[in-house]
Amino acid sequence: MRTKDTNMGARPKVLVLVDESNVGSSVRTAGRGLDWLKLRDFLAGPGTGRDLIEMVVYAGLPPATPAWQEERDKKNKFVHWLRSNGFMVVTKDGSPAEEGHYKANVDVMMAIDALELSIEMRPDVVILVTGDADFAYLAIKLRRHGIRVEVASVAPNLGNMLKSAANHVIDLAGLFRTFEMIKEPMPARVLSTGENQGQQRPRRPRFRRSAPRTGQNRTGG
């Protein structure tokens, strides 16, 4: 177990890891579009009294096949938007599944990175933005290294094992209510990834309708 700094006045250093598919599914269920800049500020912005080291977003890409090329191009534009706004993004190519589906499970990548980045960056707090119970052992492992683990999710999407494994649960329901309402349903294909298999994913995130003019434009994927 590492020894924390003894300077009581130091602001806690925070590493945020986001399961993009999981949180995206949760916010769409609430009928909202995901505002990534608001999410970052809520979790580790200047008003939280914490210093953000990195916010890492793990995103599955549609398969690199002609049938999925249009979707893949749009998702890559979203990834570019995230990176241009200061997010670190890790992607994984999906593989075709049954008709209208693809699989892109990023859980293993996210878990491995959580351990490696925690050793390299030495955060005081790791926030896992996911409700996937598969991350319960990761939470316990990080706590064994003296790191405080917080889970950010909504109650209907939060696995009991993960809830029990974390030091603290951040309820995102109130934050989601501040996001822009989705005005109309959009055609969807299904993204199969992790525990969200079978849930529908809109074909076009809101940000794709108009390109951001500045780095402060808020949007979602």
Regions with pLDDT < 50 over 5+ consecutive residues?
1-6, 185-221
Strand order of the largest sheet: 3-2-1-6-7-8
What string gives the helices and strands in order? EHHEHEEEHEHEHEHEE
Largest sheet, strands/sense/barrel = 6 strands, parallel
Structural class: alpha/beta
| Count of DSSP-assigned helices | 7
**Share of helix, binned:** 25-40%
How far the N terminus sits from the C terminus, by CA atoms, comes to 37 Å
Strand content: 15-25%
Task: Provide mean pLDDT, rounded.
Answer: 82
Morphology = globular
Task: List how many beta strands DSSP finds.
Answer: 10
What integer value in Å does the Rg equal? 17 Å
Key attributes of the depicted protein:
six-stranded parallel beta sheet; alpha/beta; 221 residues; disordered N terminus; 7 helices; 24% strand; disordered C terminus
Kindly describe this structure.
By secondary structure, the protein is an alpha/beta fold. The chain has a domain at 16-117 and 174-205. Helices cover 31% and strands 24% of the residues. It has seven helices and ten strands. The strands form two sheets. The protein has a six-stranded parallel sheet, with helices on both faces. The radius of gyration is 17 Å and the shape is globular. Mean pLDDT is 82; it is low at 1-6 and 185-221.
